[in-house]
Specification:
single chain; mainly alpha; 12 helices
């Protein structure tokens, strides 16, 4: 059972995180200091560093939480599912649960606005992409374990994850540049791109309306 002390620590961490994201999205990441975040919550700078190594960790915290949940969801998919199916279903079936987790800490709208801050802030984007590469390695090993192959000797797990990760990166970038930055808009755009992976890689594009025609309707 969670103790009173643990609940208090959780509330402090959530308050610091919520305040940090609000300042990052309204004032800008570079113009926000750790002191300002701590002062707004009425705690010391030392208290902030008990929960976060720095403001970059706070800025990417919820993205890290979402990704960790996704990796575990892939690991828990039924053993008979093909690798790309496991990746797709873990993502799509995890949307509602992710929404609940995020809402327990900050408004989902605030979480989504942070994507735009990350995209427009070079230091955060670099950290995000670096972390994405690390996650791809973890996912490849999860797929390899599920399929009973060697992730270092068999290229297929990394290839599958690279394709999936590329689709997700494209969806993030396109979504963050559009007017509708709701969770539902991200979901629709992601699904439309995932549905085009097979045709885009295996079919003759001249015989189809193409990806652009599909995504423009989302």
């Amino acid at each position: 059972m969670e103790t009173l002390r643990e609940r208090k620590k959780q509330r402090t961490r959530d308050a610091l995180l919520r305040t940090a994201l609000e300042l990052f999205t309204t004032r800008g990441y570079e113009r926000t200091t750790v002191d300002e975040i701590a002062d707004t919550v009425d705690v010391s700078q030392r208290t902030f560093f008990r929960y976060f190594a720095g403001k970059q960790e706070a800025a990417l915290f919820l993205q890290e939480l979402a990704v960790a949940r996704f990796v575990e969801a892939v690991r828990d998919r039924p053993a008979g599912e093909a690798p790309m199916t496991a990746l797709r279903q873990a993502l799509l079936e995890g949307w509602d649960g992710l929404n609940d987790i995020i809402e327990s800490v900050v408004p989902v709208e605030l979480y989504l606005r942070m994507y735009q801050v990350i995209e427009s802030t070079p230091v955060l984007l670099a950290a995000h992409l670096r972390r994405s590469a690390e996650i791809e390695d973890s996912l490849a090993r999860v797929l390899a374990e599920r399929e009973g192959v060697d992730a270092d000797a068999d290229p297929r797990p990394r290839l599958a994850v690279a394709v999936f990760g590329g689709v997700m990166r494209l969806a993030e970038r396109q979504w963050s540049s559009r007017g509708d930055v709701s969770l539902d808009a991200m979901r629709r755009l992601t699904i439309s791109y995932l549905e085009q992976v097979g045709p885009a890689l295996t079919e003759n594009w001249r015989t189809r309306s193409g990806i652009t025609g599909v995504s423009s309707e989302t």
